[in-house]
Amino acid sequence: MSEKFLHRDEAPFSPAVWQMIDETVVGAAKAQMCGRKLLHTEGPFGLGLKSISTGDNEVTSQEGISAYAGCCTPLVMISSSFKVPARDIAAFESNGAPLSMAQAAQAAIKCARMEDTVVFNGSKELGTQGLLTAKGGGSHKIGNWQEVGKAADDVISGATLLDKQGFVGPYVLALSPTLFENLYRRYPDGDMTELEHIKQIATGGIIKANSLEKGGVMMQTGKQFASIVLGQDLMTGFIGPEGTSYEFSISETAALKLNRPEAVCVLK
């Protein structure tokens, strides 16, 4: 990926510092990114990609003349910043003293959670829709998953709804932490857990999505139905000196590309 706009070459410290920062940022973010576990990613295509085409709208006049206007979804730029004391960097470079990356990890986690917000919820202010808010998607009202067997019933209902729309699987399922943890219960008349049972239905995988406060989403797998488009993938840039510290930025650009909203069933 291009580092042209990140000003990394202006930083007055060694590649070893950058390696530690990059490993921390990428590791912390990947552990949090639920959307990328659910969907395929496309790209990165570069920072200059600001929108993706979502087709054309056609308007036909009374004279039989058609006019078309291109529709697009903007890529959202997500960014956060953190600081590292200059003395700590100097100590690391001179004698290998431990260099705390706590602020870098926290900033990366914030960016990862914002990416998931873009993917799952979208943003009215930014003009984007998410998997849970897109028009044209299906939904199923779930019951009480404290009752063993109810979770499987609801997932079967979701699969049935998708199947009727022509989406025959495989399916992938993302659940809020509370719902996911309910799946560890065993059926009273056997050794199988509900999680093991539901894996036979959602064969594309079951994900615990920390970004979901409640409910979940079930959908047909495949990037032809939905994907995450990346302009610039999550990277760290150099801002410059700030007092007795150095300031850094973490940024990315991303959009949910939802080609077939009807391939999604929201579990409410």
Automatic annotation (TrEMBL):
Location (main, coarse): other
GO cellular component, one term: encapsulin nanocompartment
Key words, A-Z: Encapsulin nanocompartment, Hydrolase
Protein origin, superkingdom: Bacteria
Organism: Anaerohalosphaera lusitana
Similarity section: Belongs to the encapsulin family. Family 1 subfamily.
PANTHER family, per database record: PEPTIDASE U56 FAMILY (PTHR37165), TYPE 1 ENCAPSULIN SHELL PROTEIN (PTHR37165:SF1)
Pfam families in the cross-refs: Linocin_M18
Root EC class: hydrolase
Subcellular location: Encapsulin nanocompartment
MF GO annotations: hydrolase activity
EC number: 3.4.-.-
Protein name, as recorded: Maritimacin
